[in-house]
Structure formats: C-alpha cells, structure tokens
Design brief:
The complex is a heterotrimer. By secondary structure, chain B is α+β, with helices and mostly antiparallel strands. Chain B is built from 16 helices and 24 strands. In chain B, the strands form 6 sheets. A 7-stranded mixed sheet of chain B has the order 8-9-10-1-11-22-12. A 6-stranded mixed sheet of chain B has the order 14-21-13-20-18-19, sandwiched between helices. In chain B, strands 4-5-7-6 form a 4-stranded antiparallel sheet, covered by helices on one side. In chain B, strand 18 (369-375), helix 12 and strand 19 form a beta-alpha-beta unit. In chain B, helix 8 (290-299) runs antiparallel to helix 11 (341-350), helix 14 packs antiparallel against helix 15 and helix 15 (453-463) runs antiparallel to helix 16. Chain C has a single domain (23-52, 72-295), classed as MetI-like (MetI-like fold). The radius of gyration of chain C is 22 Å and the shape is elongated. The longest helix of chain C has 37 residues, at 199-235. By secondary structure, chain C is mainly α. Classes of the chains: A mainly alpha, B alpha+beta, C mainly alpha. The B-C interface holds B 231-233, 236-237, 251, 253-254, 257, 301, 304-305, 307-309, 376, 378, 381-382, 384-386, 388-389, 392-393, 400-404, 407 and C 61-63, 65-66, 68, 82-84, 151, 154-155, 237, 241-243, 253, 255-260. Chain B: Its main location: periplasm.
Chain lengths: 316, 527, 296
Amino acid sequence: MLRHVLQRLLLAVPVLLGVLLVGFLLMQVVPNDPAVVRAGPTATQDVIEGIRRDLGLDRPLWLQFALYLGRLARGDLGVSIINNMPVLEELGNTIGPTLELMLASLAWSVPLGIGLGTVGACWRGGLLDRAIMMVSVAGVSVPVFLLGLGLVWLLGFTFPVLPFSGRAGPLWTLEGLAGIILPALTLGGVFVGPVARMTRSAVLDVLGADHVRTARAKGLSETAVVLHHALRNALIPVVTLIGLQIGFLLGGAVVVESIFSWPGIGRLAVGAILSSDAPMAQGTIIILSVGFILVNLAVDVLYAVLDPRIREASGP
Amino acid sequence: MKLATTALAAGISALCLAPAAAQTRAPLSILRVIDADRYDPVRSTATSAAEVIFMLADTLVSLDFDMKTIKPLLATSWTVSPDGRTYTFDLRRDVKFCDGRPMTAEDVVYSFKRWIDPATRSPVAARAGFVKDIRAADDHTVVYELKEPSSDLLYQLTLSFASVVDKAAVEALGQNFGVQGFNATGPYCWASWTPRQELVMKRNPHYTWGPPIYRNPAPQIDQIVWKIVPEANTMMAAMQTRQADVTYYPPHIAIDTMKRVPGLNVQQQKNYIYDVFVGFKVNKPVVEDGTIRRAANMAVNKDAIAKAVYFGNGTPMHALLSPTVIDYDAKAASLMPAFDPAGAARLLDAEGWKPGPDGVRVKDGRRASFTLYGIRNDTGPRITEAMQADLRKVGIDMQIQLWDATVAWGKLATQEFDAFILSYPYVTATEALNLYFKSTQAPTPNRMNWKDAKTDALLDAASTANDPAARTEANAEAQRLLTQANVWIPLVTQQMWLVSGDRVEGARPHGLYGAGLYKGLDLSLKR
Amino acid sequence: MSETIALTPEAAPHADFAVARRPSLLRALLRDPLGAAALAVVLLVVLAALLAPWIAPGDPYGGDLANTLKAPGEAGLLGTDGQGRDMITRLLFGLRTTLGMGISAVVIGCGLGGLAGFAAAYYPAASGVVMRLMDVLLSFPAILFGLALTAIVGPGLRAVVIALSVATVPLMARVVRGAALVVLRQDYIEGARALGMSDARILTRYVLLNCLSPIFVFVTLRFGQVILLGATLSFIGLGAQPPTPELGAMAADGRNFLFFAPHVAVLPSLVIFVIVLAFNVLGDSLRDALDPRLRR
C-alpha cells in the first residue's frame, strides 16, 4: 500500500517537470510585450524601452530562463510584471477562495449525484430512473453561465434572498456562508449530472457482474447487494471521473468567479495569461497543475483503498 | 454531534453580535468593472487608477464641475509671470499627510520631480510641459519654471498624475508604492488593496482642505470600499437590491430602468468628456487614400450607433472633439462630412473605386479592405459590427480583430493594423491634439502615423501660447486641418451617469479623467 | 495513470459479442423512444446546419440598428439580437459554426487519443512514456490551454479547436487503454496470437470492435462536453470573433441584455443545451443497445 503511494509520487516527478517545461515554453511564445502592457496606452517608445530594460526583458531568453529556474529552486516565484505583487502572495490570496468554492460545490453535488445515480440504477427503466436521468442529463447539458445568470436573476434579483456580489468573508461567518451559496449552487449544478450518470452506469455494470450475481444467489437482500457489492466497486470509475473532472470544474470556476466576482485563482490565471504577466501565469499554471497532480494521486490511492485487488497486487 | 453543537453555538453568538455590529455603519461601497494595475500616480494612465488616486491624494489646483474652471486646492493662489514661463504657487499651511506629518513645498517639489524624472519611466511625464526647474522658494511657495510657456499647465496640474505624495513612503515601498501602500494628503487614506477584488480607504482624520467646489471641505464617510464587479447583470442587480451604494459604470441598457427604481438616484454629468473614435494609419495601403477615409466617415451612421449600442445614453459626435471642451471649434465641426451613404458611394465611384465581383470596391487591382484593431469591452464588439455593416453597404470591407484589454495595448502598439478604435478622456483641446497628432508621438500614442509639419507647428503654437486667443486660434486651425484629412472617424461621446442608493447623500457626478466622484467630498451616509 | 485505471473487469464483453451485435444496433436504438427522438434531433440539427445558407430567412451579418433587441414575435419569429439581426438566421449559422467546431475537436482529439490508447495498451513498453505524456497533458486544464493558445495564435475558432482537441486526447487515451487492456486479457486474444494473427489484425478485428462500446459512450459524452467547453471559452471571449455567428459567442454577447432581452442569450444557450442533450441521450441509447447483457 505504502509502496504503491510512493511509486505514484515518484512517477509524478517527471510529470511535474514536463508541466514546468510546457508552461515556460507556452509563455515564451506569447507575442505580447509585458513592457507595453505595463507602460499603458499613451506611453512613448522611450518609456517602453526603459521599462523593458528595468524588467530584464532585453536579456537573452536562456538567461531569463536560467534566472527564473534559479529563483524557483529557492522557492521564489518572482513578482508580477504588471503590478509588482509577489506571485506567491497573490497565489496564497486566491487559492483559498477557489478551494472554498470547489469544495462547497463538490460537497453537495457529489453525494447528491452518487445518490441519484444509485437510485436510478436500482430502479432501472422505471419512472423514477427516467426522471433522474432526465434531470442529470439536463445538468450535464446546461451551460454553466446560463445556470449562474439564471440563479442571479431568480434568487438574487427577482426574489432577492441571497447575495451574489462576491466573497463577503470567511466561510464560518454568516455573510461568508450566505455569499457562497449561489456560486456553489451554480458550479455544483453542472457537476451533479456527470456524477449521477457515471454512478448509474457503473452500478449497472457491477449489478450485472458475476460476483454480484453470486451474492444475490446467496440470498442477500437487494439493499445489501447494492450497498456492499455494487456501489463499492462502482465508486472506482466515479472517483476517476471526479478526479478527471477537476479541470472541467476549474473551467466552470473561471466563469463562476467572473459572474459572482469571486476572488479566485481562475480569474487570476485568466488575467495573468491574457496580460502576458509571465511570472504570475507561470505561478498559476504550476499551482493548478500541482493541484491536479495531487488530486490524481489521491484518486490512485483511493483506488487502492476501494479495490482490494490492487491492494493485494502491490502489497509488500 | 459535537460539530452540530459548535455550529449552533456559533450561529447563536453570530446572531447576538449582529445588533452590536449594526451600530457602526457599513462602509460606502462603490462598484466598478475593472481594477487598475497599480495606484502610483505617475505610473498608471488608467482611469481606474485615477478615480482612486483623486481621493487618496491632492493636486495643487482642482477643476470645477463645469470641466473648465480652475479652482484652488493645495495651492490657495498662484501667479504666472508675463512671459508665461514661471508659475508661483502659494501653498496652504494646514495640510497634513495621512500619517500626520505636515506637508511643505519640498514635498510638492519632490513629487513633481519624480513625475518628470526619466528614471521613473512615467508614461505621462510629457504632461508636465518643458520644465526648466521646479523649486521651493520657502516652506509654502513652489516655483514652477518652464523653458517655454505651457498653455495647458494648470489643467494638467489638476490631473491625478500631478498628485503630491510622501517621499518617505515612496522610498520605503519602491516599486510597491501604490501596490502595497500609499501616503498622501487626500481626503481618504489607503487601508488595503486586494487586486481584482477590492480597495479599501479610510477617512483622513486631519483633512479640512477640500476644494471650494464642495460645500463641506472635510470627508464625512469613515470607510470606502471600491469593489470590482465585471459582470453587467450582477452590477445592475447589486445596485437595485442595495448590495452596493454607488456606481458610475451602470450598463447602458439599464440606465432608463434604474431611473425608475424607487430609492435609486440617477444623475448625469452633462460636461463629461470621454470620446470614442476610429483612427486610420494614414501610411497603410487603402486607408492612405483620403477618399476611402472620407467615404468611411460618411458611411458610418453615428446617430444609430449612439442610439442602439448606448441605448440612447451616448452622444453622437459630429466633430473631431467634444463640443464641451475648451477650444472646441464650430467651424471645424461644419467641415465634418454628414452621414450620407449615397454620397459616399458617389464619391468612391468618382474617385475610381469601382464595385468588384463580391461587392467590395476595387481600384488599380486593390480591394477596399482594411483591418481594425480594438479592445473587447462592453461596447467595442457592437460598435465595430455596426460600422462593418455600414461600410459594407458602400462597398468597403472592414475586418475586425478585438483583443482582451491588457493584450490590446501591446497589439495597438504594432504596425499590423490599418485602423483602430479607442476611447479616451481629456480636459482641453490642446491636450487631446498634442497627445495624439504630434509627429513625435508616433508610433504610440500617434498610432495614425500622422506626420505633418503644419499640424506640428499649429500644435506647438497652441501648447506654448501665452495668449489664450492665440491658443484658441491655433487649436481651431489644427481641428479644421485634421477634420478635412479624415484622420479620425469620431463616433460617440460617452455619458457619465452616477447611480446612488437611498443611503447616500450629497453624490454629484464630476468626471475629471473618468473619475465620477472626484475627491469623494460632500458624500455622507444616512444609515 | 497505470494498469489500475482499467474499467471494472466485470464489464468485459464476451467473445461472441462482436459478431452478434452488428445487425440489430439501429433496430435496438430505434426501439428506445428517447434514443430515436435524440437521433432525430441530431439528424435535424446536422441538416439545419448544412442547409443554413439556403433556409435562413435573413442576412447573418447585416443588421438593422433601428430594430435591435426585438422580442420573439415582434420582429421575425424569434426576434432580433443587439445588432438588429434576425435571430433565426443567426442561430442557423451559429449551429453550423458550433457543430463544425465540436466535430473537428472530437475527431482530432479522439483520433489521436485513440491511437495513443491502443498503442499504450498493446505495447507495454510504450505504455509508460505514452501515459506519462498523457498525464502531462491532463495536468493542464482545458481552460488554461485555451487561454495560452489564444495568447499565441490569437483568439478565434482555431485556438478553441486546438485547445479542445488537446484536452480530449488524454481522456480518450485513458478510456481506450482501459477498455483495450480488458479485451487483451481475454482468452480469445491469446488464441488469435497463437494462430499467428498480426498485431494490426488483432487490434482491428478484435480489440477495436470490442472496445467500441466504451468508445461510443465516451465520444458522445465528450461531444457534449466539447460543445459546452467551447461555449465557456467563447463566454470569456476566446472563441469565434465578431461577427462570426457561433452559439457560445452569441450567448456571451447576449448576456449583457439578460434582464432586458433574455432571448438573445437564452436562445443560443437553449440550442447548445438541446444539441448536448440529444448527444447525451443518444449516447445512453447507444450504450444500452451495444451492451447485450443490459439489453432485454
């Protein structure tokens, strides 16, 4: 078990190096001059040249890269080209709200999705199943911005019961809790569908499998069969799905953060990349990718926990 | 179970605390759509920086609500030498920085020298004129000496770029001045900034020297929070549901509705100057032909754009400059071709631009086609698409390429495009024309590559005139020349609408360099 | 990631599956009313997109600024947009662009991903390198790819198609590899190898055919996701440029009028919704039809 985890960790190292390389190369080919961005619309050529020298952008590329890697090795992600803010500080400020938003969204959408999917699978073909599938298929198909704007219109504007203009405070305050409801409903709303669908397929697959048939033949109750045999095995693809969908969720988060003025890392990344703020863009790419790798690692470990065959196969 | 108990206890204590918290008034919240990169007066040209800096810092002189009259601020009075080269400012004695230190003439001299020092890399240094020397004659007198007269100097000194800042804070914070901290003599003091989210400022307890354009020279609000709300619908709903107090960035489509919402106060600043225009790179193929530029000017229906894109809350422009501005020339305006698509078609026909097989005109084997760059904001796509449709009707093909705001400035500094669309705030004709049309300003901000000796001479004459009449005459000549050359297609003057909730008293739209609340004085909260 | 990602082995198709399935697929699909309806919608949508230039009542580009934001019924059956253009016309042409974008991204992404997945499954030596490469690709959420690509090649459909394709490749590779590994474990593959069948023959004759079920399900699901992701990218302004009609960009364009003229944003969003819904329902039906054990 431990060996399995260590093996996965080691395998993540080349992945991370690849991420760093791809991230750096992407930012280098961006045909946008940070000095011009910083100088603003009415600056003359002299001012732009001066800023370019100040920022070290007139140095050869390899030297810039080497300096960047050297700082990175010391844990220094640099400062924003645009506003001189330390990248690490900005990342620290924005990662929390995004995690908050994602966790709040997952917290209600994943259990609901798994529940709906399981119920649907057990009553396969029935009216309830059809209704659940309709709802979840609709959830899979609805554009996230339509859901967000619709919720603002309904619960913020027409019946003004919930706030929607940003993060009012930490989650443990009443304002903070109220402020996250609409964003989390929006982001989670597009996630219930995929989870329910995948759970249903997975449970159905497992219900038809040999060992479940055996369990049924042994005279176990249907509830016991579903809970102990089917759902447990079915959770494996569901966990994969959730791991793989973190990127999808992040895409949704960018839109949700923009609609609800949520101060998250998605908006930071978008702004940094679009303004060619290389250190900031690098920082967000590294953080997001590391997060993604960690999630996948966690998915692997969960497999091992959920699937006894792997545990045995890679055991000591 | 334990968790539930804890949550319950937290809930109860929060409820008990609520009445106590309600006794201190919630801060005044101002909504806007975009944040600035930094709040260093001399290092940002963004209106989103200026609107904040006006409240954090003061200038020697201020501008009245008419956008024309100079009024005192840090300087109680000033004299100009007969040759127009020496300005002597007499400063107030009672001014203190946010940290309590009294302000002296040395602080003014330091701030101005920092503004024009090449090492500061200020993109707005040229606005200070050709400075010979700036010095403190005594603790309360500043002498501003120029190599040649600058007819626009006092107006430029009202802008946020000429703010007086604290040397100690600038030196301590370095590149982080206006990013992690600030110290100046404005009515409000820097508290905190979370980029792209909010900027918080607190009342300057010492402040009693507001400009005479306000009834009360001291600030009356304890705390102001500037919030960024990029989404138009969210912004509107937040105002209507009282989640925020003030905005002067209401979506154009929503202004008429907001006027009807009980408890929302909607006011217009009629003297606001913030123009939208299309400029041509006059040395690029196709648009180098004055006929094409003139025909395009005639083909674009500016009234329809103002009505449809701005929902009537934009003023169509029929002159190079806004009629509100100092030195606006009515005769130049009469030279601007009127909307006349049929006339444009006839003009093109007469000049040899004949319709090609795909409807686009051709002359000497060259298609009447050009590429326009612009910024993707709320109006950019709609204005350009409308123009594109108008131009197609007379056989001119306009390709559109819009860029995200931050990328756009880089793209607009290149020579890749033939025309561009921009909007800009200005105070005087001298400022606007000198900024954009001088040959020395190419390639940016003179993105038209307009290099004309006569224009240069007129603009120099205007900016160095010691006599207002001479300045007006030079500016008028320049406007006539540029109008006839159709270097720009002026489109719309944006309007400023200040929306405030029923908690707010004393709000009045100002709009200098886009700053709707200017110094933020006279504002108070009812509850 | 590794061997552990295989779909549940219990779902392994039977050896005779490939032979028995073919003739009854369409019939099984049509027997399911929802599936039949979805198929009809998909065909209709594709037809409408193909015929757009001939059936559209107006000009997709030229607008009438005196007639903007008219509600459905007020001007034309579905009203006009912010430029005064007929909504039906815009929607038909938008459908064309959006479907083209989705199909290109899915074909490119699934084609490359499928090749990578089969290669990784069939040649264990290549597996490590290929799947590690896929992991790197997966470490970049599609939205970041879209952003970075936009910065490089400029905003537009090209950037979106590339980003969506790249984001699809590793997902497809994982699904295909997982399914192929299960098939490769079956006795009949050993049999085929023993009979001296070539790798290519085994891959096409047995492995590919027996992997079709999860692939079909993935592709249909992915088509929906790609359309939605494309709409998201357009919503942030990275997609089709004005005045190109594209459903996601149209929805983004209309969002500023949401409270005043909701049809401008809602109609294209609804069309997106219907397309994605149809493909998802079709995917479900296909899955049921393709899996003999669940077909009753």
